[in-house]
Amino acid sequence: MSALPLPRAELAGCVWLPRFLAKARRLHDGELGSEYAARFCDRDSVDEHFLRFFKVPKDEFVEAAIRLRADEDFAAWFSARSGIDGGRLARWNHLAGNLGRPGFPMAARLAAVLPTAYRHLDPLRVQTIFDLLESDENAA
User: Fold this and answer.
1) Statement: residue 46 has pLDDT above 90
2) Could you tell me the pLDDT band of residue 1, with boundaries at 50, 70 and 90?
3) What average pLDDT does range 116-136 have in this prediction?
4) What is the pLDDT of residue 49?
5) Is the CB of residue 91 less than 8 Å from the CB of residue 98?
6) 67 vs 18: CA distance, rounded Å
7) Of the residues 42, 59, 65, 75, which has the maximum number of CB atoms within 10 A of its CB?
8) Nearest to residue 102, comparing CAs of 134, 136, 127?
């Protein structure tokens, strides 16, 4: 299985979207690693924050990911949703890039998992959830 897109990769001007899209498709195709599959859209995950921020029901996102196999088609579907505009994308990109920092969502989760499940990572280099994912996947 090829690597998932990086958390900061963009589709339709939106970070996380290419990664989330790839995870949804791979889960459907039975090709998503068990660790990722177990946490897909988990409570207090980046996936869940994404869905809530953009007001996209999980089942609609997954259905569109499966039906629209070309990334460009999916990007058009996503961009056409109500409330998706440049300002909203900029707010999400800022929020997403800071997930896990003190004062942002997922800060408690990052603080809890870094010294336990991710103790192999240098905590000085991991300030956000995106840092954690990138560092962990580069270490593997």
Assistant:
1) yes
2) low
3) 95
4) 98
5) no
6) 15
7) 65
8) 127
pTM over 0.85: yes
| Residue owning tokens 């177990």 | 38
Place of tokens 């999980």: 58
- In total, the chain counts a number of residues equal to 140
Tell me how crowded residue 13 is: count the other CB atoms within 10 A of its CB. Answer: 16
SS3 assignment, position 122? coil
Report pLDDT digits (tens) over 11-29.
Answer: 999 999 999 999 999 999 9
Q: Computed from CA positions of residues 41, 26, 15, 106, in that sequence, does the dihedral angle turn out positive or negative?
A: positive
d(CA 4, CA 16): 11
Q: How far apart are CA 32 and CA 113, in angstroms?
A: 22
Question: Using CA atoms, how far apart are residues 21 and 97, in angstroms rounded to an integer?
Answer: 18
Q: State phi, psi for 11 to the nearest 5 degrees.
A: -140, 135
CB distance 48 to 41 below 8 Å: yes
11 HSE (CA, 13 A, CB side):
20
Say how far apart CA 140 and CA 137 lie, in whole Å: 5
| Residue type (1 letter), 84 | I
